[in-house]
Prior knowledge:
Layout: H1 4-11, H2 18-26, H3 28-41, E1 47-51, H4 57-63, E2 68-73, H5 76-87, E3 95-99, E4 113-116, H6 128-143, E5 149-151, E6 154-164, E7 167-168, E8 171-172, E9 177-179, E10 188-190, E11 195-201, E12 209-217, E13 222-238, E14 243-248, E15 251-262, E16 267-275, H7 280-286, E17 288-293
Parallel strand pairs: 1-2, 1-4, 2-3, 4-5
Antiparallel strand pairs: 6-10, 6-11, 6-13, 7-8, 9-15, 12-16, 13-14, 13-15, 16-17
Amino acid sequence: MLNEREIESCYLGQFIPLHYHHNMLMDQNRMHSFKSAIDYAVRPGAKVLELGGGTGVLSCFAAAKADKVYCVEFNPDMVREARKFLAMNPNGAKVEVIHADAFEYLPPEPVDVVICEMIHVAMLREKQVEVIEAFKKRYTERFGGPLPVFLPEAVLMAVQPLQQEYDFEGFYAPIIQFQETGVVHSGTVELAQPAVYSLIDFTQTNELSYNWEGKFVASRDGKLNAMRFITKNVLAVVQERSATIDWLNHYMTLPLAEPVAVREGDVLKVSFAYRAGGPISSLQNSLKAEVAYEAVLQASSIPAYA
Length: 306
């Protein structure tokens, strides 16, 4: 019988169907960024562990340089698929696909790099943060230090107030939307610059909950009816070039329960609270926005008195 965490995992990312993995393989930005970061982080002869291997593609990238890759996958269907795909690829024989729970597995030897791509926007749904924090504790107890290099190394999360169009051929439906980055969306109006609300550094101990309250200055008049959540994954830090290899998730736009009319110069107060790996609804239900201070009237609009 499944325990409570296993039941939740069925809904929150641990049992992603194969057709969704196809979408991830087709995401060129994701694939290219991870391949570049893995090529940089994995040195010749390294030992690598992947937690949540899916199709095995990232383990296959690592096997190009590594001597041994342990690829851990919880979903038995994906274990079979990964073994099949890896057998078709060069260096696939260096990857051992292991049917195990990433919350419990430890490799039989110390490893140099740990790859974990259980990443959803805002660290929701999937168990990236919780899995890595639990792994660091188990690994240190078994092998001591130092910890392996983690890929991604860090995650930067930000939020931005929007006016979002929710008219679909005359049908009004304020729903959650996922939008491509680097694309102009005609139905989206940015009402202020994004604000960073969390920086996750996987070399450090990280909290599993986020409670944030922040302020924005409205850059234009509009109707604040949605918040955009931005997640930038720092896959690898290239120290010799003072650069990073990044992967930006699609933007996630959540509608507000109560839209707010704003004017340019208004100070907006936004707050929310949720836990890493929780459902999107937990963030959406806590999301609140209001005008904290109204804009000061322009001098030209103030009547003159003799």
